[in-house]
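Section 5: illustrative case.
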Protein backbone atom coordinates (compact mmCIF):
# COMPACT_ATOMS: atom_id res chain seq x y z
CA UNK A 1 0.00 0.00 0.00
CA UNK A 2 1.19 3.52 -0.82
CA UNK A 3 0.42 6.64 1.17
CA UNK A 4 1.74 10.12 0.42
CA UNK A 5 3.60 11.86 3.27
CA UNK A 6 2.40 15.18 1.87
CA UNK A 7 3.53 17.62 -0.83
CA UNK A 8 6.04 19.59 1.29
CA UNK A 9 9.63 18.36 1.29
CA UNK A 10 10.79 20.91 3.87
CA UNK A 11 10.14 24.47 5.00
CA UNK A 12 12.50 27.32 5.82
CA UNK A 13 11.58 30.14 8.14
CA UNK A 14 13.57 33.36 8.49
CA UNK A 15 13.10 34.26 12.15
CA UNK A 16 14.19 37.88 11.93
CA UNK A 17 11.47 40.46 11.31
CA UNK A 18 12.13 42.24 8.03
CA UNK A 19 11.00 45.85 7.45
CA UNK A 20 7.50 46.00 5.94
CA UNK A 21 7.50 42.21 5.52
CA UNK A 22 8.06 40.56 8.87
CA UNK A 23 9.19 36.95 9.01
CA UNK A 24 9.29 34.85 5.88
CA UNK A 25 8.62 31.14 5.38
CA UNK A 26 9.47 29.18 2.26
CA UNK A 27 8.06 25.75 1.51
CA UNK A 28 9.89 23.46 -0.90
CA UNK A 29 7.55 20.99 -2.55
CA UNK A 30 8.44 17.48 -3.65
CA UNK A 31 6.86 18.16 -7.04
CA UNK A 32 9.35 20.92 -7.78
CA UNK A 33 12.29 18.96 -6.36
CA UNK A 34 11.51 15.97 -8.57
CA UNK A 35 10.93 18.01 -11.72
CA UNK A 36 14.19 19.93 -11.20
CA UNK A 37 16.09 16.71 -10.45
CA UNK A 38 14.69 15.03 -13.55
CA UNK A 39 15.74 17.98 -15.72
CA UNK A 40 19.26 18.14 -14.26
CA UNK A 41 19.86 14.40 -14.62
CA UNK A 42 18.44 14.31 -18.13
CA UNK A 43 20.62 17.23 -19.29
CA UNK A 44 23.75 15.67 -17.81
CA UNK A 45 23.14 12.31 -19.45
CA UNK A 46 22.20 13.89 -22.78
CA UNK A 47 25.40 15.96 -22.79
CA UNK A 48 27.46 12.80 -22.24
CA UNK A 49 25.61 11.05 -25.05
CA UNK A 50 26.20 14.00 -27.38
CA UNK A 51 29.94 13.68 -26.85
CA UNK A 52 29.75 9.96 -27.61
CA UNK A 53 28.04 10.73 -30.92
CA UNK A 54 30.60 13.36 -31.89
CA UNK A 55 28.23 16.30 -31.30
CA UNK A 56 29.07 19.41 -29.28
CA UNK A 57 27.56 18.95 -25.80
CA UNK A 58 27.39 22.70 -25.15
CA UNK A 59 25.32 23.23 -28.29
CA UNK A 60 22.93 20.46 -27.33
CA UNK A 61 22.60 21.84 -23.79
CA UNK A 62 21.76 25.31 -25.10
CA UNK A 63 19.07 23.83 -27.35
CA UNK A 64 17.79 21.75 -24.44
CA UNK A 65 17.55 24.84 -22.24
CA UNK A 66 15.31 26.53 -24.79
CA UNK A 67 13.31 23.32 -25.17
CA UNK A 68 12.82 23.04 -21.40
CA UNK A 69 11.49 26.59 -21.16
CA UNK A 70 9.17 25.98 -24.10
CA UNK A 71 8.19 22.64 -22.64
CA UNK A 72 7.23 24.06 -19.26
CA UNK A 73 5.20 26.83 -20.86
CA UNK A 74 3.55 24.39 -23.26
CA UNK A 75 2.81 21.83 -20.55
CA UNK A 76 1.12 24.40 -18.32
CA UNK A 77 -0.73 26.16 -21.14
CA UNK A 78 -2.07 22.84 -22.44
CA UNK A 79 -3.30 21.85 -18.99
CA UNK A 80 -4.94 25.22 -18.28
CA UNK A 81 -6.69 25.35 -21.66
CA UNK A 82 -8.37 22.02 -20.99
CA UNK A 83 -9.35 23.17 -17.49
CA UNK A 84 -10.61 26.67 -18.27
CA UNK A 85 -13.85 26.08 -16.41
CA UNK A 86 -11.89 25.59 -13.18
CA UNK A 87 -9.44 28.44 -13.65
CA UNK A 88 -12.16 30.95 -14.51
CA UNK A 89 -13.48 30.57 -10.96
CA UNK A 90 -10.04 30.79 -9.29
CA UNK A 91 -7.73 33.75 -8.59
CA UNK A 92 -5.69 34.63 -11.69
CA UNK A 93 -2.37 33.70 -10.10
CA UNK A 94 -3.36 30.02 -9.84
CA UNK A 95 -2.79 29.74 -13.59
CA UNK A 96 0.92 29.97 -12.78
CA UNK A 97 0.87 27.72 -9.68
CA UNK A 98 2.79 24.87 -11.27
CA UNK A 99 4.03 23.77 -7.85
CA UNK A 100 0.52 22.42 -7.24
CA UNK A 101 0.85 20.11 -10.24
CA UNK A 102 -0.84 20.43 -13.60
CA UNK A 103 1.83 19.92 -16.27
CA UNK A 104 0.62 17.99 -19.32
CA UNK A 105 3.35 16.00 -21.07
CA UNK A 106 1.80 16.34 -24.51
CA UNK A 107 1.72 20.10 -24.18
CA UNK A 108 5.30 19.97 -22.96
CA UNK A 109 6.39 18.00 -26.02
CA UNK A 110 4.67 20.45 -28.35
CA UNK A 111 6.15 23.50 -26.63
CA UNK A 112 9.60 21.97 -26.29
CA UNK A 113 9.76 20.81 -29.89
CA UNK A 114 8.64 24.20 -31.16
CA UNK A 115 10.97 26.41 -29.09
CA UNK A 116 13.94 24.04 -29.07
CA UNK A 117 13.42 23.16 -32.71
CA UNK A 118 13.40 26.83 -33.69
CA UNK A 119 16.71 27.37 -31.92
CA UNK A 120 18.27 24.30 -33.58
CA UNK A 121 16.98 25.35 -36.99
CA UNK A 122 18.41 28.85 -36.63
CA UNK A 123 21.76 27.40 -35.54
CA UNK A 124 21.67 24.88 -38.42
CA UNK A 125 22.30 22.05 -35.96
CA UNK A 126 21.18 18.42 -36.58
CA UNK A 127 17.67 18.47 -35.13
CA UNK A 128 16.86 14.78 -35.67
CA UNK A 129 20.13 13.69 -34.07
CA UNK A 130 19.46 15.93 -31.09
CA UNK A 131 15.99 14.44 -30.71
CA UNK A 132 17.45 10.94 -30.74
CA UNK A 133 20.00 11.89 -28.09
CA UNK A 134 17.43 13.28 -25.65
CA UNK A 135 14.70 10.68 -26.27
CA UNK A 136 15.76 8.12 -23.61
CA UNK A 137 16.27 10.86 -21.06
CA UNK A 138 12.87 12.36 -21.72
CA UNK A 139 11.41 9.01 -20.70
CA UNK A 140 13.70 8.88 -17.67
CA UNK A 141 12.64 12.38 -16.63
CA UNK A 142 8.99 11.38 -16.91
CA UNK A 143 9.64 8.30 -14.77
CA UNK A 144 11.10 10.52 -12.04
CA UNK A 145 8.63 13.37 -12.40
CA UNK A 146 5.58 11.12 -12.04
CA UNK A 147 6.45 10.65 -8.38
CA UNK A 148 5.50 14.29 -7.92
CA UNK A 149 1.92 13.17 -8.55
CA UNK A 150 2.30 10.72 -5.67
CA UNK A 151 3.27 13.44 -3.20
CA UNK A 152 0.51 15.75 -4.49
CA UNK A 153 -2.12 12.96 -4.38
CA UNK A 154 -3.14 13.52 -7.99
CA UNK A 155 -3.33 11.65 -11.29
CA UNK A 156 -4.59 8.48 -9.58
CA UNK A 157 -6.90 5.84 -11.01
CA UNK A 158 -10.17 4.18 -10.11
CA UNK A 159 -10.81 2.56 -6.70
CA UNK A 160 -9.03 -0.76 -6.16
CA UNK A 161 -8.16 -3.31 -3.48
CA UNK A 162 -4.94 -4.51 -5.10
CA UNK A 163 -1.94 -4.98 -2.76
CA UNK A 164 -0.18 -1.94 -4.30
CA UNK A 165 -3.22 0.31 -3.81
CA UNK A 166 -2.79 4.01 -3.13
CA UNK A 167 -4.45 5.73 -0.18
CA UNK A 168 -6.02 9.09 -1.07
CA UNK A 169 -7.05 11.51 1.67
CA UNK A 170 -10.68 12.65 1.81
CA UNK A 171 -10.05 16.15 0.49
CA UNK A 172 -8.41 14.74 -2.67
CA UNK A 173 -11.03 12.10 -3.53
CA UNK A 174 -13.53 12.58 -6.36
CA UNK A 175 -17.00 13.32 -4.91
CA UNK A 176 -18.52 10.19 -6.46
CA UNK A 177 -15.93 8.03 -4.67
CA UNK A 178 -15.77 9.86 -1.36
CA UNK A 179 -16.24 6.64 0.61
CA UNK A 180 -13.43 4.85 -1.24
CA UNK A 181 -10.02 5.00 0.39
CA UNK A 182 -7.75 3.20 -2.06
CA UNK A 183 -7.15 3.85 -5.75
CA UNK A 184 -4.94 2.64 -8.60
CA UNK A 185 -1.46 4.28 -8.32
CA UNK A 186 -1.34 5.26 -11.98
CA UNK A 187 1.67 7.45 -11.25
CA UNK A 188 3.53 4.22 -10.41
CA UNK A 189 2.30 2.42 -13.52
CA UNK A 190 3.51 5.23 -15.75
CA UNK A 191 6.80 5.58 -13.92
CA UNK A 192 7.56 1.88 -14.34
CA UNK A 193 6.41 1.93 -17.96
CA UNK A 194 8.73 4.85 -18.70
CA UNK A 195 11.65 3.04 -17.08
CA UNK A 196 10.92 0.14 -19.41
CA UNK A 197 10.93 2.55 -22.37
CA UNK A 198 14.34 3.86 -21.27
CA UNK A 199 15.77 0.33 -21.24
CA UNK A 200 14.30 -0.54 -24.65
CA UNK A 201 15.64 2.64 -26.22
CA UNK A 202 19.14 2.38 -24.75
CA UNK A 203 19.69 -1.38 -24.86
CA UNK A 204 17.68 -2.63 -27.83
CA UNK A 205 17.22 0.24 -30.26
CA UNK A 206 19.86 2.97 -29.92
CA UNK A 207 22.62 1.23 -31.89
CA UNK A 208 20.23 -0.18 -34.48
CA UNK A 209 18.58 3.17 -35.15
CA UNK A 210 21.69 5.39 -35.26
CA UNK A 211 21.78 5.10 -39.05
CA UNK A 212 18.32 6.66 -39.28
CA UNK A 213 18.20 10.00 -37.40
CA UNK A 214 14.79 10.64 -35.90
CA UNK A 215 13.85 6.95 -35.58
CA UNK A 216 14.82 6.64 -31.92
CA UNK A 217 12.77 9.69 -30.96
CA UNK A 218 9.79 8.29 -32.85
CA UNK A 219 10.28 4.99 -31.02
CA UNK A 220 10.15 6.86 -27.72
CA UNK A 221 7.00 8.63 -28.84
CA UNK A 222 5.30 5.42 -29.90
CA UNK A 223 6.34 3.32 -26.89
CA UNK A 224 5.41 5.97 -24.36
CA UNK A 225 2.08 6.60 -26.05
CA UNK A 226 1.18 2.90 -26.12
CA UNK A 227 1.51 2.71 -22.34
CA UNK A 228 -0.12 6.08 -21.78
CA UNK A 229 -3.21 4.98 -23.71
CA UNK A 230 -3.80 2.08 -21.32
CA UNK A 231 -2.93 4.01 -18.15
CA UNK A 232 -5.09 6.96 -19.14
CA UNK A 233 -8.09 4.65 -19.21
CA UNK A 234 -7.65 4.08 -15.48
CA UNK A 235 -7.29 7.72 -14.49
CA UNK A 236 -10.10 9.84 -13.11
CA UNK A 237 -8.74 13.29 -13.87
CA UNK A 238 -8.28 13.02 -17.64
CA UNK A 239 -8.36 16.14 -19.78
CA UNK A 240 -11.49 15.73 -21.88
CA UNK A 241 -12.61 16.87 -25.31
CA UNK A 242 -16.30 16.12 -25.25
CA UNK A 243 -16.55 12.42 -24.41
CA UNK A 244 -12.97 11.66 -25.49
CA UNK A 245 -9.89 11.52 -23.30
CA UNK A 246 -7.45 13.89 -24.97
CA UNK A 247 -4.36 11.91 -23.94
CA UNK A 248 -5.77 8.74 -25.49
CA UNK A 249 -6.55 10.48 -28.77
CA UNK A 250 -3.05 11.98 -28.93
CA UNK A 251 -1.53 8.63 -27.97
CA UNK A 252 -3.28 6.81 -30.82
CA UNK A 253 -2.05 9.43 -33.30
CA UNK A 254 1.50 9.20 -31.93
CA UNK A 255 1.57 5.39 -32.15
CA UNK A 256 0.35 5.50 -35.75
CA UNK A 257 2.92 8.15 -36.72
CA UNK A 258 5.73 6.13 -35.12
CA UNK A 259 4.61 2.83 -36.65
CA UNK A 260 4.45 4.33 -40.15
CA UNK A 261 7.50 6.62 -40.01
CA UNK A 262 10.14 4.38 -38.40
CA UNK A 263 10.14 1.72 -41.18
CA UNK A 264 10.27 4.49 -43.79
CA UNK A 265 13.30 6.10 -42.14
CA UNK A 266 15.10 2.78 -41.79
CA UNK A 267 14.33 1.77 -45.37
CA UNK A 268 15.50 5.12 -46.71
CA UNK A 269 18.85 4.83 -44.89
CA UNK A 270 19.29 1.26 -46.08
CA UNK A 271 19.12 2.27 -49.75
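Designed sequence:
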Amino acid sequence: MFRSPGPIAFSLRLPADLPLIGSLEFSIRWYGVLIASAMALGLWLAARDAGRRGERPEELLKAAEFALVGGLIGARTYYVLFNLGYYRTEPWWRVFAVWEGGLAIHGGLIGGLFVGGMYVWLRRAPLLTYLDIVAPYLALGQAIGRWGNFFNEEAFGRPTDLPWKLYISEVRRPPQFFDAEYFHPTFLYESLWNLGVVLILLVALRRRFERAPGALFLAYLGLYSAGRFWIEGLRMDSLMLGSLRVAQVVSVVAVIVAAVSIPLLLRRRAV
